[in-house]
Design goal:
Elements: E1 4-7, H1 13-22, H2 32-41, E2 44-51, E3 54-62, H3 71-79, E4 83-91, H4 100-114, E5 119-127, H5 131-139, E6 143-150, E7 155-163
Parallel strand pairs: 4-5
Antiparallel strand pairs: 1-2, 2-3, 3-4, 5-7, 6-7
Length: about 170
Amino acid sequence: MPVLVRPLESADLPAVLAMNNAAVPAVPPADREELAALVTTASLAVVAESEPGRPAGFLLAMDPGVDYASENYRWFSTRSDSFVYVDRIVVADGARGTGIGRALYDAVFARAREFERAEVTCEVNVRPANPESLAFHARLGFERLGEQETKGGAYRVALLAAPIARR
């Protein structure tokens, strides 16, 4: 079944919040207010559906110059001003391997091309390990730029970027 990527709407927040918190520790936990604030801050907030009205994944991304306190966003901001930063992407349990993740990233790469950004950036946990996500990102052309400790040493992340010129 084809995947539809559309803007995240306020009616999607309960499903998106449930997906987000089911994906911890791959993404940080959030409550409704935190998630709503992230959606407001994001320059790209989308959901993916393979059945109408049933989000099976979501993605939040930030452009350069956003007032956002994320350690990882700040790391990318210090090295470039030509990126789209994926703050979080989650594909619901049972929907992985169905093209949802790729469709969400297609939307990010389209945004990067539209605004003539040089790359799409993100981070993936290496502690706790998330080898499936690292492999997925490698298939999309992401390369490891570095690593850093976050959340006071509770996590270690790989900092990744995929250049737009290759696409």
